[in-house]
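Limitations

Structures in this collection are predictions, not experimental determinations, and the ligand pose is part of the prediction. Treat each record accordingly. The example that follows, with uracil as the small molecule, is included so readers can see exactly what is and is not provided: the inputs are given verbatim, and the output is the predicted complex.
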Amino acid sequence: MDVTVVDHPLARARLTTLRDERTDNASFRGALADLTQMLIYEALSGAPVADVEITTPVATMTGAKLANPPLLVPVLRAGLGMVEQAHAMVPESNVGFVGIARDEQTHQPVPYLESLPDDLSRTPVFVLDPMLATGGSMLHTIELLVGRGAVDITAVCVVAAPEGVSALAESGHPVRLVTAAVDDGLNDNAYIVPGLGDAGDRQFGPR
Ligand code: URA
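Predicted complex:
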């Protein structure tokens, strides 16, 4: 599986803000939006473009547009903090939604919402979820997408655990990962270490 770690100095600085326990919810949301911009920029770096003929105030020329804008799929709740910025970067995109809670006892994903187009066979998909921990929620989402024919899936995450990266790689699904960091691992509660805590709570407060 292709894994891209965005370690631009600005990405590292925003990630440090996210990790710092002193960062309040509003500042966390701001840093997450900034970092999402960098991750989406990187995720689209090899995207095909189509020619567009335009006229500038001076001359005619051939410009470019995204040939096939990705469907953006935030995984609720934590992915909500990424979708507005991602959509601002790619206003041509459509947006689908997947809602997955996490059972705090078993650490298993508990799906509660699925709002996706029926046919994704010709659409690249960017799944937006800040934390790739065990990979359970991401794999559930990817299986929903593959079930609709998706063959080009990008997991856009802020922090990944090696366990989650392995789970995606071993799934055999057509997925690549763009992330700002691959951390040390998971603790007994399946939180990423050092990580940044609960990405949903840190944006929106505790449930
Ligand atoms: N989900 C989170 O929000 N944080 C983690 O560390 C793991 C899963």
